[in-house]
Write a structure and sequence with these properties.
Blueprint: H1 2-16, H2 19-39, E1 54-58, H3 74-82, E2 88-91, E3 96-99, E4 106-108, H4 111-115, H5 127-137, H6 142-159, E5 165-168, E6 174-177, H7 183-221, E7 226-230, H8 232-269
Antiparallel strand pairs: 1-2, 1-7, 2-3, 3-4, 5-6
Helix pairs in contact: 2-6, 2-8, 6-7, 7-8
């Protein structure tokens, strides 16, 4: 009995959910993912400090020696300066989080305020300042912001597409009818979501390349005393958001081409 009710429920939902509704759901998910990416390290709320672009932290490990190093012994001097420090700094698009002693994270968009919360012994190499310089000079969040706005505009345009409704034919029989959306409106939606996808791609590539480069350089400069890494969560959110926007772009393109093909077939028959 329960299976029958479930099947009937799906049949009733079938005419209600249209092709454009699926595209709208994908856009909504992409907007949520990109918004979470921008919100990384903006507050101390649970999980938000785990969304970061780059992480710098003090940790003692065997230094790497290379013939290209003019003064390999500098690693010993750095290790003496760092001492027992264990501070960790995480950088997001709009905020910075610090963990001075292995406890909870303190997050703020003001690096000076965070620096005032720690002592010289906790951050002897000024990692908070380095993180602030990376955020202010390299990180560029505005392409993602524009992409989110464009994706939302496309969402609103798709919401205007006609859905299923009931009509009566010449015989008086009731039938479900769904008109085709306007071709110019569909093309505008396609152009907007395509630009949003391009902006997201550029921003995610920029984010990934800059984070990897800064991570490698910071760890080499603190050879033996400073570790660094890039945020996996931020990478996943960025690339998944881009993938969803590309899927929507392809979906709209397929819809427009299908409608055009149907119109041509109808014109040929008439």
């Amino acid at each position: 009995m329960a299976n029958i009710r479930f099947s009937l429920g799906l049949r009733r939902l079938g005419p209600v959910i249209g092709y454009h509704h699926i595209l709208m759901i994908l856009i909504a998910i992409a907007i949520i993912l990109l918004s979470l990416l921008l919100a990384g390290c903006s507050s101390s709320s649970p999980l938000i400090p785990n969304i970061f672009l780059i992480s710098l932290y003090y940790q003692s490990y065997p230094p790497v020696f290379d013939p290209a190093q003019v003064d390999p012994g500098v690693t010993t001097a750095i290790a003496n300066i760092v001492g027992q420090s264990q501070l960790e700094v995480r950088v997001g698009y709009f905020g910075i989080c610090i963990n001075p002693d292995g406890g909870s994270f303190l997050c703020s968009n003001n690096a000076s305020a965070l620096a005032a919360q720690v002592s010289v012994d906790q951050d002897p190499l000024n990692l908070i300042w380095v993180a602030s310089t990376f955020r202010d000079s390299i990180v560029f969040p505005y392409l993602i912001i524009v992409a989110i706005i464009l994706a939302f505009i496309c969402f609103l345009i798709l919401a205007t597409f006609p859905g299923w409704h009931e009509e009566f034919d010449e015989r008086g029989s009731e039938r479900d009818v769904k008109p085709f959306p306007s071709r110019p409106v569909s093309q505008v939606a396609l152009a907007i979501i395509f630009v949003a996808a391009v902006f997201t791609l550029v921003s995610v590539l920029w984010q990934h390349t800059a984070s990897v480069a800064a991570s490698v350089i910071a760890q080499d400069l603190g050879n033996g005393s400073v570790r660094s890494g890039i945020g996996t969560s931020a990478i996943v959110l960025g690339w998944f958001g881009f993938a969803l926007l590309i899927i929507v772009t392809i979906g709209l393109l397929v819809m427009i081409l299908s409608i055009r093909l149907l119109d041509e077939l109808v014109d040929q028959d008439s």
